[in-house]
From TrEMBL:
Protein name (Swiss-Prot/TrEMBL): Aminotransferase
Family to which the UniProt record says this protein belongs: Belongs to the class-I pyridoxal-phosphate-dependent aminotransferase family.
EC number of this enzyme: 2.6.1.-
GO molecular function: transaminase activity
Organism: Lactobacillus leichmannii
Keyword check for Protein transport: no
SUPFAM superfamilies: PLP-dependent transferases
Lineage: Bacteria, Bacillati, Bacillota, Bacilli, Lactobacillales
Pfam hit, one: Aminotran_1_2
EC primary class: transferase
Length: 393
């Protein structure tokens, strides 16, 4: 094993050193060593990629589709994304200049923030929310302004947004919205987004909208802020959740052309271009597989209802998820409010893996996140184990 030259041991990006690693991944790895544990920790669909999408990837391999492609993505895929967004969001994005194919939605978020933020720019982030946003804003030199929404059903209100903008001052440049939301499963209605849009438009904010779970809404149709404010929205999505293609790493950005040059530059410096075979599969998914998510959504809704019903009986409190595949549940009062201690104890004694709520920002302490993207029999076993755990205490 090589020994580092002593003169090199102090090397390292000091700004990056200040940022903690992913707490979700770290906690998942910590409890993964427990024998027989059932993990509801990661947002990983348990379904297989649809067969016709897999066959499209195979055809690409057989056709030797193995050379560098355009940095922004294959034009055929950008055209498919543009057509899909025109039908679902009623916004016409030029596939040549207003769509970028990325290495998953994660890279889309990273490239967007690196391309558009300057040091000291403040970004409003309603919480609880996926902690990746915090670290990526900080990596880009921005400042995170968390907005605790735990007292308004985990949705941001226009009144609260107005107050936070006033308090944060002139350096506020953008707001990040994730809907349906990880970890709460909550989303926004057309009326709620219309009210928020008035405030965002008034203050000329950039809205970065992560809509990766948009195909998985249960009780209402997904509505996008881009439909209302196309000139102020960076729309980010992908196929990881809708088509269970997490390993394909296929995401995209859609936005007005004038906002994208630096974003495209950051993207090209990070990944050059996205894997051709993943793009071949994505073209198939977005041209012939738009109905594929319906089967997944029906299963997730059934699982949601099962978990909400049973967790409520066990003493957990939650806002019923309207989309995605997470439940963000308040720990029963008798267990206290230390969500890390609770999650570790449940992992050890009940052999059930959950994510402590505190990793998701303000308003998250005392909660745990359940991912119900797991087979029905596993969820039934989780409920059984948790029931025994609660009964013992």
């Amino acid at each position: 094993m090589p020994e580092t030259d002593p003169n090199l041991r102090d090397l390292g990006n000091r700004n990056l050193a200040k940022i903690a690693p992913s707490a979700i991944r770290a906690f998942d790895e910590e409890i993964s060593q427990i024998p027989g544990i059932i993990k509801l920790t990661l947002g990983e669909p348990d379904f297989a990629v649809p067969d016709h999408v897999k066959r499209a990837a195979i055809r690409g391999i057989e056709a030797d589709d193995s050379h560098y492609g355009p940095s922004k993505g294959k034009l055929a895929l950008r055209e498919a994304i543009s057509k899909y967004l025109a039908a679902s969001r009623q916004v016409d994005y030029d596939p040549e200049t207003e769509v970028i194919v990325t290495d998953g939605a994660t890279e889309a978020i990273t490239a967007t923030l690196l391309g558009l933020l300057n040091p000291g720019d403040k970004v409003l982030v309603p919480t609880p929310v996926f902690s990746l946003y915090f670290t990526n804003i900080e990596m880009a030199g921005g400042e995170v302004v968390m907005i605790d929404t735990s007292d308004t059903g985990f949705n941001l209100t226009p009144e609260r947004l107005e107050a936070e903008i006033e308090a944060a001052g002139d350096q506020v440049k953008a707001i990040m919205l994730n809907y349906p939301c990880n970890p709460t499963g909550r989303t926004y209605s057309k009326a709620e987004l219309t009210a928020l849009a008035e405030v965002i438009k008034k203050h000329h904010l950039l809205a970065i909208c992560d809509e990766i779970y948009s195909e998985l809404t249960y009780d209402q149709e997904h509505f996008s802020l881009a439909t209302l404010l196309p000139g102020q929205v960076i729309l980010i999505s992908g196929l990881s959740k809708s088509h269970a293609m997490t390993g394909y790493r296929l995401g995209y950005i859609a936005a007005p052309a004038s906002l994208l040059p630096n974003v495209a530059k950051a993207h090209s410096f990070m990944v050059t271009c996205v894997d051709n075979i993943a793009q071949d599969a994505a073209i198939e998914a977005l041209t012939k597989g738009l109905d594929d998510p319906k089967e997944f959504k029906a299963a997730y809704q059934r699982r949601r209802d099962f978990m909400v019903d049973n967790l409520t009986k066990l003493g957990f409190e939650m806002a019923v998820p309207q989309g995605a595949f997470y439940i963000f549940a308040k720990i029963p009062e008798k267990f206290g409010s230390d969500d890390f201690a609770f999650a570790k104890d449940v992992a050890k004694k009940a052999r059930v893996g959950l994510i402590p709520g505190s990793v998701f920002g303000k308003g998250s302490a005392g909660y745990v996140r359940f991912s119900y993207a797991a087979a029905d029999d596993k969820l039934a076993e989780v409920v059984k184990r948790l029931g025994e755990y609660v009964a013992q205490l």
